[in-house]
Specification:
Elements lengths: L2 H11 L14 H13 L7 E5 L5 H9 L4 E6 L2 H11 L7 E5 L12 E7 L8 H10 L1 E12 L5 H14 L4 H10 L17 H10 L8 H8 L5 E8 L4 E3 L17 H5 L2 H8 L3 H12 L3 E7 L11 H5 L4
Parallel strand pairs: 1-2, 1-4, 2-3, 4-5
Antiparallel strand pairs: 5-8, 6-7, 6-8
Helix pairs in contact: 2-3, 6-7, 7-8
């Protein structure tokens, strides 16, 4: 069986989130859009939005409930996941959301292009992620933005240790035994990003975190390789840490009024001599220093081709922290 078929069968058996009667807890996309509004002055209104790899759709439905004046499309290659999404939609009457089975590796544009494409936690499971990004870029408007999330290499050591341990205990195919052993070993204290919203989420989260058939861990430099041919600008927007998320800020003297946790190179360098060296570095090097200081377990990235900056009223932070 090919890896892609194994991965698909995994999500058919363990769709996530499993509780299709949302309790309002699946708000990652809502929080991200709210942050963009507060940070950059981006208003999600009158837009066409695609969630590529939507899973069971609860995050997208929560987003549609919070920002109703948009049209939303969610695709996923798991038929069971989309069936769950359709059931979940019944709890969101009037939501302008459509779901369908689709594979971003073979997706053809349907209808008008999208203003926002979200691809959260998908690209690190693909063998040809650059091709997927290129396909998504073609169905994005000239003033659109791609938001995506991938696992980070530097901060995933403990999770990968647990994953290796389960493989050594049970080999590659004993999925049920791996789930039970993960519970016995206490591997349900998931890192940030796998927060349990419902007891039924535990097994799918164990599978996603510790049993997944294929994943690639990224750094900023390897992210650049899959994005650079499709987008002119790529911004590391957020770092996922073991227990919290941080907005990425590389400047030493940034004015930052929002009460949001962020990276702070000054506090990490802790030396005027090191600050002076850091201040003279090109932006690319500053971001690499920041990446190594914080060792993120995941990256939230923002990619665009310039036109997106015309959609926001405060572009300074994005332009000041763009990968160059």
């Amino acid at each position: 069986m090919k890896y892609v078929d194994m991965l698909k069968s995994q999500y058919e058996a363990f769709p996530y989130p499993t509780n299709t009667s949302s309790n309002g807890g699946y708000r990652e996309l809502v929080n991200l859009v709210k942050l963009l509004r507060l940070d950059c002055g981006y208003h999600l209104q009158g837009k066409r939005i695609l969630d590529a790899g939507t899973g069971t759709g609860l995050r997208l439905l929560e987003l549609a409930a919070a920002f109703p004046d948009n049209d939303y499309v969610g695709i996923d290659y798991s038929e069971n996941s989309i069936a769950c999404a359709e059931r979940a939609k019944q709890a969101f009457p009037g939501a302008r959301v459509s779901f369908r089975v689709g594979d971003i590796m073979s997706e053809d544009p349907q209808g008008e292009p999208f203003d926002v494409i979200m691809c959260m936690g998908v690209l690190h499971h693909l063998q040809r992620p650059a091709e997927a990004i290129d396909r998504l870029s073609r169905i994005l408007t000239s003033r659109g933005v791609l938001l995506f999330y991938v696992y980070g290499e530097y901060g995933s050591g403990e999770r990968m240790r647990r994953k290796r341990l389960l493989s050594h205990l049970h080999g590659q195919d004993q999925l049920g035994h791996k789930i039970e052993s993960a519970k016995r070993l206490g591997f349900t204290n998931f890192p940030y990003g796998w927060a349990i919203q419902d007891p039924t989420d535990v097994d799918p989260m164990i599978v996603d975190a510790y049993v997944n058939h294929y994943e690639v861990l990224y750094t900023l430099e390897t992210i650049e390789k899959i994005v650079s041919n499709s987008f002119t600008a790529c911004v590391p927007y957020g770092f996922t840490m073991e227990r919290n998320g941080l907005l990425v800020e590389s400047r030493l003297d940034a004015r930052f009024a929002m009460p949001v946790a962020r990276t702070d190179p000054r506090s990490k360098l802790n030396s005027s001599a090191l600050e002076e060296i850091y201040a003279k570095l090109p932006k690319r090097q500053q971001l690499l220093v920041l990446e190594n200081l914080y060792a993120p377990a995941g990256y939230t990235m923002l990619a665009h081709n310039g036109g997106f900056l015309e959609e926001i009223s405060r572009p300074e932070r994005l332009t000041s922290n763009a990968w160059q």
